[in-house]
Write a structure and sequence with these properties.
CSLREA_Nterm; CSLREA domain-containing protein; disordered N terminus; about 1150 residues; signal; mainly beta; 22-stranded parallel beta sheet; 24-stranded parallel beta sheet; PbH1; about 5% helix
């Protein structure tokens, strides 16, 4: 019996021990270890004296799920543990959780001698939190090459990383993942790898999930790229609510992520400032490079990433990329690459996505395609998206050089390109309802149903208007509002606003075109009378609508009844000013030509109180009259004025047009402030601590009786002016007593009775890539008068100004670089940073319309400002929106310059020369001149260079004067029996055999390179023979016997078009717009084609000898008839006064 009891006891003891080990048949019990020391000791024991290494080793040897904690007394302050015994090995003997004290309290330092953690087994399940891993070095291994992860190498297990920092690791970067990883609330920064990703390298077949984490300033110096994350073949990776910034892949891309194949999902994440150097290999991608697999991106933002191709993303031929509800802004492809935001060679679908403000810049060898997106061989589908305000050398919005592009319900607008295809270059397969603002060089196939072509999209600036990403709203009068197709429309827009809304409040609910759906909350003005009965219902005045909006708690819009305001209407205020207070809403007029709001000189028009936010668009504000400040508008809140006209207002004090009060924020875009009057600040006045932004606007013909800012007076505020013109103001163009940043703008034709015709400076003035010309003061500083403060100029032109003393600049110029100042007298430069030019005529054309929304001074072909600037610190386009720089290959650049032009105007290869015929001295004005066949002499009465006689030619010669060498001066030349004799002012004499004796010479610039080409029209065959200086020889059959050749630039693209006049009909083959035939004139009329309205396009026109009348069909100003001349007179139209418009003239 005793023996039996003893046996039973031994059995119970054995069973209890087994249960202790096995955990009662379930998971094994583990142990909890506490690290009590910082030092990296290794005595294999974890007791009261326990290092992290000793804790891990003990846990490795202990079956079960173990936990390692840290003594809070020891780790209450930041500690660094230097790993002196190699990396910390973790095996698969149960799970292990390491609960660090906090990444700011514990740093594990490998001192570039060892990796920090290595997880060996496939069965390992490790969680690490609250530590920093730094200076780890991932030595090469047989199975993982050089990609072993300096911070962590997970060979096959499952690793979760929480609230950790992985920084400064090398030779394999931060993490090498060979199994499954979860990375949460972790910062991975400043890691480097020469053979893989700087951040995380995922080996083939692995899985990674990243949530709420940051990848920044990691570097990959290998051909794999992916400085943040590299995904090898067949991986599954999910990234949620994370940030990738400042990562650099020095070769091949992508700057943040490279994906070889498998599945990558990115949601709610930001990619900013990642890059691949512009001189890297052909496969790039500033943020992401995709070689294969499927990548889905949602609700994410890509900003300021850069690479040679695919500034944001490069999707190669094997990749499938799906992008939803995301924004790409400020990304850049440079050095002749493609795709500022995205370069696509695979399958790409965009839905509810905004592509805005991206650039693709060419180099001297070309390139620079697709400022927004470049598609070169892949399939690109664009659905309910907005592509706007992008810039490229070719295809500003989208460039389709190959493959297939499909678009529906999308906007392509406000993009710029140097090749005449600003919004879409190439072929688009339309599925309907697309808005292409400028369809030049766009080939549209498919369905045209619902497409809107050649209309202003009326877009507001990119900004935060709700939702997770920035968007571009539509103005209420945008043609895109309610113009989409409801079939297959997404349920919501990019922000999450449901589609469809009644955006124009006409009772019909339809989706808008583009990524933004305009919401239908607002009040409708149904009358012009200024009543105020306290209600805005079916009978609602503007005053009543504003009162209702002031009282509302939600954002609102005020619109105007479409039927009533379909024709021009005037709302005359009888109840005093309109007050906008403590509300956020917009007033959306139907256009400044259709809606005028007048105070009838009895009060101010609008007053915006502090705390209010308002937008005013599409109206004319006039007749304001105040003894105080702000005749038209007084703003103390936040005000945006777009596509409006502020004119004919008066203030006895400050701000005739607009007064921007202390702390007020005023944005003026695509508007005109003109013919307003005040004591100070005739057009606009900005008070202390205010903020005034002016974009694509004109401030002209305003008056300040005090000579302190006829156009603008900035008194202690911040003025930012971009791509705008201040012209023809009296009392100084701009007075600056605060901070003024003037970029890509023109200050011209302003006058002051005192000092400073263009600008009077008393504080801080930065003048970048701008032109100050033709201003006048009665004392000093016709262009700029520096009374006090600091003036810095870069890439700017100051010339052709007048004053009794110091015509262009008076005073101290603090810093100047790449600036042309014509008159060297009256100023000193404290810090000259090179590239400055003085004492040279800038050779400007008169202020005029040379493209863009505002007037500029075009550069003549031989201007010393061409290619003598620096692009550093300036925008990528000039004032007109043309690409900057354009580097003419035959014009030497300034030392350390990059070929951009000095001033607000960047001359393009296809810019019309705008030089009048017979301008022999190149001053922009035609010279009266005659050729006397009896002695073969030219008699030139030059408007600047004076009289001269030139013996050149013989009796029987046909005169063919033109600018053959592109220096801006007409050259004397004759055509004699098939030979051209040219006396070029720059290149000297030449004789060229070209043509036959009976040919009609028709010299003109047929290839748009700024040089006249020799050419003839052969009446016997109707063939034109052109020897183009840039594009070479060509023969073109166009015309028949008896036709009169009338070559000219009829479409304003800078290239002469071949054309003939035949018995009262004009036949024109335009290089941009194609063939047209126009019946205009009679058989006996003399064709006198020329640019009579100064819009850069030749107008069809005839002189009728039978009645001495000129009949002009002007492209801009329409038809007119002018009686000027006799039947025997010879018509000699030319621009004799240099205003850019041809004058009618006769020689009798």
């Amino acid at each position: 019996m005793n023996k039996s009891i003893s046996l039973s006891f031994q059995l119970i003891k054995f069973t209890w021990s087994l249960l202790l080990i096995t955990g009662f048949g379930g998971a094994a019990f583990g142990a909890t270890f506490t690290v009590t020391k910082v030092a990296d000791s290794n005595d294999t024991q974890c007791n009261s004296d326990c290092s992290l290494r000793e804790a891990i080793m003990t846990a490795n040897a202990t079956a079960g799920d173990d936990v390692i904690n840290f003594d809070p007394a020891v780790f209450a302050t930041p500690q660094t543990s230097a790993l002196g015994f190699g990396d910390l090995h973790i095996n698969g003997n149960g799970s292990l959780t390491i609960n660090g004290p906090g990444a700011n309290l514990l740093t594990l330092d490998g001192f570039y001698q060892t990796r920090v953690f290595t997880i060996f087994d496939a069965t390992a399940n490790v969680t690490i939190s609250g530590v920093t891993m730094t200076h780890g070095r991932g030595f090469s291994t047989l199975s993982y090459g050089g990609f072993g992860g300096g911070g962590i190498l997970n060979q096959a297990g499952t690793v979760t990383l929480n609230n950790a920092v992985i920084t400064g690791n090398t030779d394999g970067g931060g993490i090498g993942n060979g199994g499954t990883m979860f990375v949460n609330n972790t910062v991975i920064t400043g890691n480097f790898s020469g053979g893989g990703s700087g951040g995380i390298y995922n080996y083939p077949g692995t899985t990674l999930t990243v949530t709420n984490s940051t990848f920044s300033t990691n570097t990959s110096n290998s051909s794999d790229g992916g400085a943040g994350i590299f995904n090898a073949a067949n991986v599954t990776v999910n990234v949620v609510n994370s940030t990738f910034s400042g990562n650099v892949a020095s070769s091949n891309g992508g700057g943040a992520v490279t994906h070889i194949s498998g599945v990558l999902n990115i949601t709610g994440s930001n990619f900013s400032g990642n890059q691949v150097p512009a001189n890297s290999g052909p496969s790039t991608g500033g943020a992401i490079r995709i070689n294969g697999g499927t990548v889905t991106i949602a609700a994410s933002t890509f900003t300021n990433n850069s690479a040679r191709s695919g500034g944001g993303i490069l999707n190669n031929s094997g990749g499938t990329l799906i992008i939803n509800n995301s924004t790409f802004n400020g990304n850049n492809a440079s050095n002749g690459g493609e795709g500022g935001a995205i370069a696509n060679g695979g399958a790409l679908t965009l839905t509810n996505t905004t592509i805005s403000g991206n650039n693709s810049l060419g180099n001297m060898f070309g390139g620079g395609t697709g400022g927004g997106i470049s598609n070169s061989g892949g399939t690109l589908t664009i659905i309910y998206s907005t592509v706007a305000n992008n810039t490229a050398s070719s295809g500003g919005g989208v460039s389709a050089s190959g493959g297939t592009v499909i678009a529906r319900n999308s906007i392509f607008a406000d993009n710029t390109a140097g090749n005449g295809a600003p919004d879409f270059g190439g072929t688009v397969n339309s599925q309907g309802n697309n808005l292409i603002e400028n369809p030049a060089n766009t080939v549209i196939t498919g369905t045209m149903t619902g497409n809107i072509l050649g209309q202003d999209a009326q877009l507001l600036p990119l900004g935060s208007y709700g939702g997770a990403t920035k968007t571009i709203p539509l103005l209420g009068t945008s043609p895109a509002v309610d113009a989409g197709n409801p079939d297959n429309a997404p349920a919501a827009d990019q922000r999450g606003v449901p589609r469809s809304q009644d955006g124009d409040l006409n009772g019909v609910f339809l989706p808008d075109i583009g990524a933004y759906e305009r919401e239908a909350i607002g009040f409708r003005v149904t009358k012009t009378a200024d009543t105020n009965d306290g209600a805005c219902n079916a009978d609602c005045s503007l005053r009543e609508a504003i009162a209702a909006a002031n009282a509302a708690t939600l954002d609102n819009v005020i619109v105007f009844d479409g039927a009533l305001f379909a024709s021009p209407q005037v709302i005359t205020l009888t109840g005093g000013e309109l007050q906008i207070s403590n509300a956020a809403f917009g007033i959306i007029g139907r256009g400044a030509d259709f809606l005028t709001i007048s105070a009838n000189n009895q009060s101010r028009v609008f007053s915006i109180s502090a705390g209010a936010a308002a937008g005013i668009t599409g109206v004319k504000i006039t007749g304001g009259n105040m003894q105080g400040n702000g005749g038209g508008i007084s703003n103390s809140g936040k005000l945006s004025v777009t596509t409006s006209v502020i004119s004919g207002n008066n203030s006895a004090n400050f701000g005739g047009g607009i007064f921007n009060n202390e702390n007020g924020m005023l944005s003026l875009s695509n508007s005109v402030v003109g013919s307003n009057t005040a004591n100070v600040g005739g057009g606009l006045f900005a008070f202390t601590n205010s903020n005034l932004t002016i974009l694509n606007s004109t401030v002209s013909a305003n008056t300040a009786t005090s000579n302190f800012g006829g156009g603008i007076s900035n008194n202690g505020g911040t003025l930012t002016m971009n791509k705008s013109t201040v012209s023809g103001n009296s009392g100084c163009g701009i007075y600056n007593g605060g901070t003024a940043n003037v970029n890509d703008s023109t200050i011209s034709g302003n006058v002051s009775g005192s000092n400073g015709g263009g600008i009077f400076n008393d504080a801080l003035l930065n003048l970048f890539s701008s032109t100050v010309a033709n201003n006048r003061s009665n004392v000093r500083g016709g262009g700029i008068y520096r009374n006090a403060g600091t003036v810095t100029t870069r890439n700017s032109l100051i010339g052709d100004n007048t004053a009794p003393n110091s015509s262009d600049f008076y005073g101290v110029l603090s810093q100047s670089s790449y600036t042309l100042i014509e008159d060297p007298n009256g100023f000193i430069i404290t810090n000259s940073n090179g590239g400055n030019i003085t004492n040279q005529d800038p050779r400007l054309l008169p202020l005029g319309n040379y493209g863009g929304t505002t007037q500029t001074h075009a550069l003549r072909l031989n201007s010393p400002a061409i290619d003598k600037g620096s692009f550093f610190g300036t925008t990528s386009t000039d004032q007109r929106g043309r690409i900057r720089p354009f580097d003419f290959p035959l014009v030497p650049n300034s030392s350390n310059g990059n070929g951009s032009d000095i001033g607000a105007y960047e001359r393009q290869p296809n810019d019309a020369s705008s030089l009048p015929l017979f301008d022999f001295d190149g001053d922009g004005r035609a010279d009266v001149s005659v050729f006397r066949p009896s002695n073969g002499t030219w008699y030139l009465n030059q408007s600047t260079a004076g009289f001269m006689g030139v013996a050149f030619g013989a009796a029987g010669d046909q005169i063919v004067p033109a600018d053959y060498d592109g220096d801006g001066k007409t050259d004397v030349a004759v055509f004699r029996n098939g030979t051209w004799y040219l006396q070029r002012s720059q290149l000297g004499f030449t004789g060229v055999a070209f043509g036959a004796a009976d040919d009609i010479p028709v010299p003109a610039d047929y290839d748009g390179d700024g040089r006249a080409d020799i050419a003839v029209f052969r009446q016997s065959t109707g063939v034109w023979y052109l020897q183009r200086s840039n594009l070479g020889f060509i023969g073109i059959t166009f015309g028949q016997t008896g036709d009169k050749p009338v070559a000219a630039d009829y479409d304003g693209d800078g290239k002469a078009d071949i054309a003939v006049y035949r018995s009262g009909t004009w036949y024109i083959q335009r290089s941009q717009l194609g063939f047209t035939g126009i019946a205009f004139g009679e058989a006996t009329d003399k064709p006198v084609q020329a640019d009579y309205d100064g819009d850069g396009r030749a107008d069809v026109a005839v002189f009728r000898p039978s009645n001495g009348t000129w009949y002009l069909q002007r492209s801009q100003l329409g038809f007119t008839g002018i009686a000027f001349g006799l039947g025997t007179d010879k018509p000699t139209p030319a621009d004799f006064d240099g205003d850019g418009k041809t004058e009618v003239a006769v020689y009798r």
